[in-house]
Amino acid sequence: MNRLLVVDFETTGSHPRQGDSIIQIGAVAIDDGIVTDSFSTLVNPGQAIPPFITQLTGITEEMVADAPSLEEVFPRLLRLLDGRAFVAHNASFDLQFLQEALLSQGYYAFDGYVLDTVELSRLLMPTQNSYRLGELASDLDIEHENPHQADSDAMATAQLFLHLMNIVNEMPLVTIQRLQMLVSSFRSDIDALLRYVEMEKMAEIPLLDAEAEAEPVLNEPSEMWDIYRQLALRKRREKLTASLRTPAYDTTSIAPFDDMLGQVLGDAGSMSVHVAGYQRRDAQEAMMHAVFEAMQDGTHLLIEAGTGTGKSLGYLFPGIIWAKQNGQQLVVSTNTIQLQEQLFNKEIMSLQQTLPFEFSAATLKGRGNYLCLRKFEQALEEPIEGSSQEMRLVKGQMLAWLTQTETGDVEELSMPPTGQLFWQQVKSDTGSCLNRACPWFSRCYYFQAKDRAKDADVLIVNHALLISDLQAENRILPPYEVAIIDEAHHLEDAATQHMGKQFTTTQLLFLLDRASVEPGAALTRFAEEWESWVGAPQDFVAEHMAELQALYAPLRDKATHWTQLLYAWASDRAEETTEAGRETVRYRVESFTGKHERIRKTTRKLIESMSAFAQVFDRFVRGLPADDKPPFALRSLRTDLFGLLNDWQKVTELLHFFLLEQDPQYVYWMEVEARTARKQVHLSAALLKVSDSLTEPLFAQKQSMILTSATLTVKNSFSYVINRFGLDQLPEERVRTLSIPSPFDYEHQGLLLIPSDFPAPGKENDLTYVDAVVQGCVDVVLASKGRTLILFTSHSMLRLVYNAMKERLTDAPDSYTLLGHGIDSNNRSKLVGLFQTIEKSVLLGTSSFWEGVDIPGEALSSLVIVKLPFTPPNHPVYQGRSELLKTEGKNAFMSMALPQAVILFKQGVGRLIRHHLDRGVVILFDTRIVEARYGRSFLQSLPPYAVESGPWPELRERIEPFLGMSTLLDS
User: Fold this and answer.
1) What are phi and psi for residue 576, nearest 5 degrees?
2) In the beta sheet, which residues pair with residue 39?
3) pLDDT (tens digit, 9 = 90+) per residue, 641-689?
4) Phi–psi pair at 613, nearest 5 degrees
5) CB 812: neighbour CB atoms within 10 A?
6) Where is the Helicase ATP-binding domain (predicted)?
7) What is the pLDDT of residue 242?
8) Which residues, other chains included, contact 594 with Cβ-Cβ below 8 Å and sequence gap of 6+?
């Protein structure tokens, strides 16, 4: 395993046995961790190269016309491969071409070790969002100039492999040994590689005698690792364990707010010294004054702060000063984990350098975001035999992750669907926590996070946790009276999701798997540990296990039958309402009548069978003698089984809630996967009205809530969000509003073009409409030289336009790179990064790209909005809330649909001008903005862009001259 050959083939297709051939070979030899040789050549395949292969690789028929044949070049490759392991990215693809070529030329098939860097990367780099070679190379700063050309791919793969070997070589021996047990069934020979590394490590570690009579023990250095109970954890840095804890501080010595403002933000202040590029802004200071005064006066404040205001600093600076002066904790809530981390790692760090006093900060997420080490240890004891390869991979990923994480936060992980289900088994929760009786307590990720949160001056959470704390009657977060809610326009959606209920058929089947009575399952191991502890077979154990076995198989059959019935019912009626590729159907319990009554009957029978099983299960687990103290392994299993029983009870309650007895306060719907073969049903329910659930526990009880966003108003009025948050139920004097416009000169920096001759927005089968959109997008891309972001409201429309644009741009004089969300990558950050670095690129995105995307400078010069972002009228939550508004005598479109669309439209337009030197064009292909009466609401809510409307052939000629002026301005 110290001699390897990294290989990449470019081919005419994917099927060597059906005639596809190699057109390029790249190979890189690695000996003892060093690149020692390389070889690359084009190959004449003796057949035509399909156009899509030429487009992918850049290899044309002219380039291979004079190239040698495979028969001529193969001996060189085989000499390099002799005695070496075969390494490739997605090795099965390259290996099948190698084997076919060997056999066709009379050689024996290759029978050496095979290593797949995709499989190895997934195992050892579990926090990656993508395992494509290009994205891995980008993340690891590996040079990869010509993706999809064999020489470049092979060298990039070789560098990736060396990086992976560094990870393995740095791992503690105990992790290597545990991983070996999990990877034996993997497609490539990772077990052999780990065995080789294990032998190398053992050879390096001296054997020491602890005492004269003791057996020799391995003495492995542990500066980086906390090795405990056969698991290796990364040691926490002091910053995390101490959480920047503040020493005792005399708060009376903090200067008055106005003095502090001048001291820190003045021309010679600490902010300009410590923060590169800091500029004092009047708008930002106006926001600071308003926030501090609202906190002082005990009022709520809604602030719309335009792009460029410096919103984060605008609320953190006064909030921290107020908190320190008053000896209180400041809570800051964001909508996304990414902003939560950004505030902690960027803005907070800057303020810790610049404020003339010390303060501490911490982040906290919901308990289910943290790994329970006791449960994970227990899960590793489950027999490997019989578990799926994907489950083994997930456990291996988490073993590797433990040597990398300091937080135990699931947000760091990028796991397959099986991993997301497995997380439900090993996450921290109240129902199966041993607290101080747990041997892992001092290392518990959740309790460490809680400790940091309790002691911090500033606690950064997300909306989901803030809402959960309200539901738990303030038992999750430390007590607080003042909070800042950033991205406040998402508060209603966050409350809708987290005050609602969700359940999937896969969850049910996974729950049944956890309660299996097969060998190696938790119940079986509990029985075995019990009898092992007592030292003899127990009639009580045998009787209950027999009874559970008799009940389990019929229960599993009923669950499978129920799943099939539900899927058939939902898939027959569902239609697309989400961009995620799911189809949705709203339902009521009354829907299951007549011939569909059997769904309810089957649900009742399923609940009855689950209840019968749970009764025996509960009696069995509680039967363990309480007088004697069982060993930890037995107590740990019992705790897990009580947690499983708790989950079991919740699932039976959810089944009853979703299908037997409906709550009129909720709207109910099902979703099925439209683009996959997975026959899974997602059941959801949302409160029709969340404002009541926000008003009393949050706004009526708390002293001061600061709600801020770049988009809170519609036509310069806050009335929509005030109503949706329930703030209209409070006395007027308790609610203040402030709108701070952006400091940018939109009239000169931006241009909004609205074609008047475009067809009205139609469906995707409306060829006239789709063709106009495609051609319009191509026109913008050509005029802008790429540098274009195109925003869609439908993922299927994005795919249609992406494919059509790719075809039409093939003949363009310049080469353009299209980056489609969900096509080239699902990771927004990666796509934005590629867009900023690849010249003449075009980025196509759906809902997540309408906000939170920050691309300053000329990398983004044109923004296309295909359609006004109205919620689909058939979305269940929209339908349910529309009906409620009608009963209140209100117009649902004007009261809800229009304001929602305006706020999202403002967010989308806000992607373009991000800096005072930016210049750009917004193009809207939706004529309703000028033809419909409500269109003025959109235009009046925007910053003062220069707006032009007219025939598209005339408008598109405005783009290039307008953008060309930016070069003159910068010079």
Assistant:
1) -70, 125
2) 27
3) 998 999 999 999 999 999 998 899 999 999 997 666 678 899 999 999 9
4) -65, -45
5) 12
6) 270-540
7) 35
8) none
pLDDT of 815 reads: 85
Q: What is the pLDDT of residues 874-885, one digit of tens each?
A: 889 999 999 999
CA distance 954 to 781: 16
Whether the Cβ atoms of residue 310 and residue 707 lie closer than 8 Å to each other: no
Which pair of structure tokens corresponds to residue 467?
Answer: 């809402």
308 annotated as a binding-site residue: yes
Q: Where are the alpha helices (DSSP H) in 205-256?
A: 238-242
Q: Is 871 annotated as a binding residue?
A: no
- AA identity, residue 794: S
Comparing 3-202 with 285-347+457-499+701-743, is the CATH topology the same? no
Rounded to 5 degrees, φ, ψ at 831 are -65, -45
CATH 3.40.50.300 fits 746-970, yes or no: yes
H-helix or E-strand spanning residue 923? strand 920-924
Secondary structure letter of residue 798 according to DSSP: H
pLDDT at residue 845, as a whole number: 94
Q: What are the structural domain ranges in the chain?
A: 3-202, 285-347+457-499+701-743, 361-455, 502-687, 746-970
Residue 322 and residue 648: Cα distance in Å, rounded? 46
Strands (E), 198-270: 207-209, 216-218, 225-228, 231-234
Please tell me the predicted confidence (pLDDT) of residue 218: 46
Q: Is 106 annotated as a binding residue?
A: no
Look at the block and give the residue holding tokens 């966003």.
709
Superfamily of domain 285-347+457-499+701-743: P-loop containing nucleotide triphosphate hydrolases (3.40.50.300)
| Helix (H) or strand (E) run with residue 137 in it | helix 133-139
CA 96/CA 588 separation, integer angstroms: 53
> Is there a binding annotation on residue 305?
yes
Q: Sign of torsion, CA 728 733 735 738?
A: positive
Q: What is the architecture, at CATH level 2, of domain 3-202?
A: 2-Layer Sandwich (3.30)
Quote the pTM value: 0.82
| pLDDT of the residue at 801 | 95
| DSSP 8-class letter at 631 | -
672, 673, 678, 683 alpha-carbon torsion, rounded to 10°: -30
Question: Distance between CA 581 and CA 760 in Å, rounded?
Answer: 24
Q: What are the C-alpha distances in Å from 396 to residues 188, 392, 393, 402?
A: 15, 6, 5, 10
The Cα 101–Cα 62 span in angstroms is 23
In whole angstroms, give the CA distance from residue 320 to residue 600.
Answer: 55
Q: How close are the terminal C-alpha atoms of the chain, in Å?
A: 57
Determine whether the annotation assigns residue 327 to a binding site. Answer: no
| Contact indicator for 680, 672 with CB cutoff of 8 Å | yes
Three-state SS annotation for 854-881: CCCCCCCCEEEECCCCCCCCCCHHHHHH
Yes or no: say if 697 and 726 are a contact pair by the CB < 8 Å rule.
no
Is 235 assigned a ligand-binding role in the annotation?
no
User: In what side-by-side order are the strands of the sheet with 458-462?
Assistant: 361-363, 458-462, 330-334, 482-485, 704-709, 300-305, 735-740
Place of tokens 């103290």: 629
Q: Kindly list the distances between the CA atom of residue 339 and the CA atoms of 209, 781, 854, in Å, as whole numbers in the listed order.
A: 52, 31, 12
Following DSSP, what letter does each residue of 422-477 receive, concatenated?
A: HHHHHB--STT--GGGSTTGGG-HHHHHHHHHHH-SEEEEEHHHHHHHHHTTS-SS
Q: In what order do the strands lie in the sheet with 817-820?
A: 817-820, 841-845, 788-791, 862-865, 920-924, 750-755, 946-950
307 marked as binding residue:
yes
Residues (pLDDT < 70) of the chain are 206-222, 237-253, 577-581, 626-627, 674-677, 764, 965-971
Structure-block tokens of residue 304: 């719309």
Distance CA 633, CA 630 (A): 8
Number of H helices, E strands in the chain: 40, 28
Tokens describing residue 12 = 């005419």
Residue 558 assigned ligand-binding role:
no
Per the DSSP assignment, residues forming a β-bridge with 332 are 460, 484
Q: How far apart are CA 552 and CA 168, in angstroms?
A: 42
Residue with tokens 């649900």: 603
